[in-house]
Automatic annotation (TrEMBL):
<dbReference type="GO" id="GO:0016301">
    <property type="term" value="F:kinase activity"/>
</dbReference>
<dbReference type="InterPro" id="IPR011009">
    <property type="entry name" value="Kinase-like_dom_sf"/>
</dbReference>
<keyword id="KW-0808">Transferase</keyword>
<dbReference type="GO" id="GO:0102193">
    <property type="term" value="F:protein-ribulosamine 3-kinase activity"/>
</dbReference>
<comment type="similarity">
    <text>Belongs to the fructosamine kinase family.</text>
</comment>
<dbReference type="InterPro" id="IPR016477">
    <property type="entry name" value="Fructo-/Ketosamine-3-kinase"/>
</dbReference>
<dbReference type="Pfam" id="PF03881">
    <property type="entry name" value="Fructosamin_kin"/>
</dbReference>
<protein>
    <recommendedName>
        <fullName>protein-ribulosamine 3-kinase</fullName>
        <ecNumber>2.7.1.172</ecNumber>
    </recommendedName>
</protein>
<keyword id="KW-0418">Kinase</keyword>
Amino acid sequence: MPPVPVSILRALNLTDASKASLSTSGLGSGFTSTGAIRALVPSPDGEGEEERQYFVKTSSDGKAAEEMFRGEYESLNAIAGSVPGFCPRALAWGPLEETKSRSYFLATEYLDLGVGGRTGSSLAQRLGKLHSTPAPPDPETGKRRFGFPVPTFCGDTKQPNRFHDSWADFYANERLMVILEESERRNGKDGGLREMVEITAQKVVPALLAHGHLGYDRNGNGQGITPVVVHGDLWSGNADRGKIVSSGRKEDEEAGEVVYDPSACYGHSEFELGIMKMFGGFGSTFFTAYHRIVPKTEPVEEYEDRVRLYELSGAMSIMQKLIKKYGS
């Protein structure tokens, strides 16, 4: 087994390298190299030692790796802070000082997938709790706003996540237009595509999501919407049954439905459902149980149109990758 890099040992406060091991067997990702660390640490009572397990990602992709891991670090902790055990907590990220290239790492709690049988909280229960918990206020203004403290990545597309007071402004500018501009940067401009996206951003988004409209019924009764933490890339490949193990945090180790690889933001709860419905894998039983916890936003009669609109950002991300691969 390769040794655990000193940078990671130091970040995890593992002081005895001889009691830590790194395994990369059977682990891998399209964007990063991954591994599992096992270490012995002093037990809380000081009478002996107990095992800790960690999951580690590394990448030599320079600035992109730095931003990607910072975004995932903040995304994981935004989710875990609201619903402990729903995803691994991120414990550390930073540069791998041992490498000559600009490499970075991300270390998290270890998530053991496929365990727990049918016990524990369901995906509907945990996601419903996440989407019922208001996002933290913006420290600069003291208001709850739509955005996220750092950029995140959906695949290899950077999402700046600049803060907006209006959800419609955020979705139009930080999702639809960002993806369009990235596609144009990579693949060249397409006048027809730009026209359709601009009409959607300038006409359809305000019609469905405008402040003063979303969150109010046809009689004008309502309170608008409150930003909540959304996973941001929740398809069936980023959810499973599982359990965090050997973390030292018993509150994190309840078996149940879990999620991972988030690309979070503070947004409208139904934004999550666009990706979930576009890729499938979540049946009517889930949505029925979820909406018992998080009712459909008013105007309810526009719910299906809103979800279709939210599907568009995911479809555009896929489209620009296909154009890059086959368009030339």
